[in-house]
Write a structure and sequence with these properties.
Order of helices and strands: HHHHHHHHEEEHEHEHHHHHH
Oligomer: single chain
InterPro entries: CdaR-like_regulators, PucR-like_N, PucR_C-HTH_dom, PucR_C-HTH_sf
Low-confidence stretches: 1-12, 48-52, 162-166
Largest sheet: 5 strands, mixed
CATH architecture of the largest domain: Orthogonal Bundle
Strand content: 5-15%
Protein name: PucR family transcriptional regulator
Organism: Actinomadura coerulea
Domain PucR C-terminal helix-turn-helix: 332-388
Number of domains: 3
Structural class: mainly alpha
Domain PucR-like N-terminal: 14-176
Distance between the termini: 78 Å
């Protein structure tokens, strides 16, 4: 019996029918256990409450396990369906802007679960040690084979993800290049099958941003390989484009530049990147895509940090020696006073104080800021610097 289980008379490398029957009986529950353990151990594959399990995962695990049993039985060599499913897992990771870390972790968890089951069955069924050893070797080699297929699918997408049909990435770089020749751009656009738009809207994304390429409109140009990923939307940014961006950037962290003529695309991207930096510094609120058109004043006020420092030293020098609490009270009162154009009642409403309290504070403040408050031009500069100063106070990362 032991001789039969070891595989006498069968093709080298193949296991006898008795062992194959034992393994086949384990497949349905083993596939279920692997899926559950992967979802429990790898956060990226965790099933959210109320959400269905992605069918692709289940099908791939079931196909892979069935193909393994077929392989160790010495069965056919055709595993096209399994190979394509494994490659698709790698492609999916690349399309979503993920690394292979989670997928490789899932493979490690899967083979560990499979080996525990094989070892348990071997003990229960008292399989010979030689059979168990051959199963272990075959199982871990098979897992490496599956992982290699997924890596291949991942690299397939990554090698072409930034080179869309017609070399769209190169086209995007031409658009952003200062002084790009319109003739060369038109030729490249024609070769790429891309209609040259009159206006464009640039979008900035953080490094390693997740991007679902399949959700992008076909006319959008994307560069994910840049250290500061970005994309170009032909025309303006309306509701349809906003919905597309929401689908394509599931993490929602991005900044949308202004809609500008094609030749000014680099400016739109520069503003978008600045807005993204202000969000990351805490100066602007992050409520999904940050629209530059809603933050023009902030972008202008914080566009040159060193120059702002110089203006602050000159216009707000009196604040430097004040304790933080008093400094915040003075700036708050001054901003409300300037917004209310010197109307103490309106300023008090903004501050939720009594008008007499505001008048008292302003008498003290006027001793330090009399020159700026008396002169309209100086008052304008003071107002601008104060606004920028308060924005900077919110975002210490910019200091």
């Amino acid at each position: 019996m032991t001789r039969a289980l070891v595989g006498g008379g069968r093709r080298p490398g193949a296991l006898p029918p008795q062992v194959i029957a034992i393994l086949s009986a384990e497949l349905p529950s083993l596939a279920e256990e692997i899926l559950e353990e992967v979802q429990r151990s790898v956060p990226e594959y965790a099933r959210q409450e109320g959400m269905p399990e992605p069918a692709a995962y289940r099908i791939t695990v079931e196909q892979a396990m069935a193909a393994f049993v077929d392989q160790v039985s010495g069965g056919g060599d055709g595993y096209e369906r399994r190979d394509e499913l494994c490659r698709e897992l790698g492609r999916s990771a690349a399309y979503q802007g993920r690394t292979l870390d989670a997928l490789q972790a899932a493979y490690r968890v899967g083979v560990q679960v499979a080996w525990r089951r094989v070892a348990a069955v071997a003990r229960t069924r008292r399989l010979p040690a030689e059979v168990t050893t051959r199963l272990a070797e075959a199982l871990f080699a098979y897992n490496d084979e599956l992982a290699s297929l997924s890596v291949g699918g991942y690299l397939e997408v990554r090698s072409s993800a930034d080179e869309l049909p017609g070399d769209h990435r190169r086209l995007l770089r031409m658009v952003l290049r200062p002084g790009a020749a319109s003739g060369a751009l038109a030729e490249a656009a024609e070769a790429a099958g891309w209609a040259v738009p009159r206006t464009v809207t640039m979008v900035a994304m953080p490094a390693r941003a997740r991007c679902v390429r399949e959700a992008m409109d076909r006319d959008v140009l994307v560069d994910l390989a840049d250290t500061e990923p970005h994309l170009l939307i032909p025309g303006g940014y309306g509701p349809e484009r906003a919905a597309m961006l929401s689908r394509a950037l599931p993490d929602r962290r991005s900044a949308v530049g202004l809609t500008v003529p094609l030749g000014e695309a680099a400016d739109s991207l520069r503003w978008a990147r600045r807005a993204l930096a202000l969000v990351e510094a805490g100066c602007l609120e992050d409520g999904g895509p940050t629209l530059c058109e809603r933050h023009l004043l902030e972008l202008w006020l914080l566009s040159d940090g060193p120059l702002l420092d110089q203006l602050a030293r000159r216009e707000l020098g009196a604040l430097a020696e004040m304790p933080r609490t008093r400094r915040m009270r003075v700036t708050e009162t001054l901003c409300a006073w300037l917004d209310a154009q010197g109307n103490a009642v309106e300023a008090a409403q903004r501050l939720r104080l009594h008008p007499q309290t505001v008048r008292y504070r302003m008498r003290q403040i006027s001793a330090e800021f009399d020159r700026q408050l008396a002169d309209p031009a100086a008052r304008f500069v003071l107002d601008a610097v104060l606004r920028a100063y308060r924005l900077r106070e919110r975002g210490p990362a910019l200091k």
